[in-house]
Amino acid sequence: MVLDLLTIAGLPTAVGAAEAVYRQRVLDEEAESSERRAPFRLNSYYDAQSKKRGEVHNAIVVLRDGKLWLWPKDANTGLPEPRPNSFEAPHPFTGFYLPFPTKHLPNRPIPVPPVLGLVSTIPPDASHSLSPRSKQPKPKLNWIYVDKDTRELKYGARVNAREHVIGPWDWTEDKDGLTLNDEELLVVVEEKKGGYGWAVYWDPNDDRLKDLEVGKTKRVLRCSLERRSVEKSARIVVE
After folding, report:
1. What is the dihedral sign for C-alpha 228, 232, 234, 238?
2. 123: DSSP letter
3. Which of 41, 55, 101, 205 could pair with 195 as two cysteines, CB 3.0-4.6 Å apart?
4. What are the sequence ranges of the domains in the chain?
5. Could you read off the pLDDT of 123-173 as tens digits, one per residue?
6. Which residues is 220 bridged to in the sheet?
7. Please, what CATH class does the domain formed by 32-238 belong to?
8. Phi and psi at residue 29, in whole multiples of 5°?
9. What is the pLDDT of residues 51-109, one digit of tens each?
10. Quick one: DSSP state of residue 103?
11. 68 with 78: CB under 8 angstroms?
């Protein structure tokens, strides 16, 4: 009889564990749906009146020097224009949503809700690996994250991103706008003048970064980042 009582007492635990596994599988499948894995680029939208509107409206988001920036867009190709005094153009954000590996996040609850992350291909000179067949750099992906101290949007390998704000990223109700923590609270900061120095930041307090030094000393404008679908490219590797 004692054995029977112990068996009965253990049933809720077993049922609870099975339910947790099921819920985890449902969450994972939703986060990894083909729709969320469809690659896209990001364009900026700025509808306020400002003498700087021409620099920040309908620009394209690029990856450069470890951060995300706005960059003038070529009207014909929709891609970044070449750098001033150069034939080269910066690398456009080209990414999609992907659950961040929760096993690398400490103190997560069970079941573990997947944190919907954001990844992008990175500039070729940062890839460091060549395909033996093509002799061309093999595209790699880095995680997009917010620096927890400066609130700059950056890109990097998992080991770097996990120490900062890695999501949840998502889209707006119309699936066009980029959100973080279910809000469109992204801004751009004029770190350098001339139209090529607008860096993307996260503004969770919706105060134009007034609680940070950069918000007190630099021009800060609120922009929406809008998704633009692109064709899938070659096989890529997530770091």
Report:
1. positive
2. -
3. 55
4. 32-238
5. 986 444 444 455 565 679 999 999 999 999 999 999 999 999 999 999 999
6. 189
7. mainly beta
8. -65, -40
9. 999 999 999 999 999 999 999 999 899 999 998 787 789 999 999 999 998 776 766 66
10. G
11. no
Displacement of CA 72 from its chain's centroid (Å): 20
Q: Which two tokens stand for residue 229?
A: 């679908």
Would you say 44 and 223 are in contact if contact means Cβ atoms under 8 Å apart?
Answer: yes
Q: How many C-beta atoms lie closer than 10 Å to residue 178's C-beta?
A: 22
Phi/psi class of residue 163: alpha, beta or left (left: φ > 0; alpha: ψ in -120 to 50)?
A: alpha
Beta bridge partners of 179: 170
Q: Which two tokens stand for residue 159?
A: 């080991």
Q: Which amino acid is at 108?
A: R
**Token reading at 231:** 């064709």
Any residues with CB less than 8 A from the CB of 222 and at least 6 apart, and which?
Answer: 46, 48, 186, 187, 203, 208
Q: Say whether 37 sits in a helix, a strand or coil.
A: coil
CB 166 within 8 A of CB 180: no
Residue 113 structure tokens? 């809700």
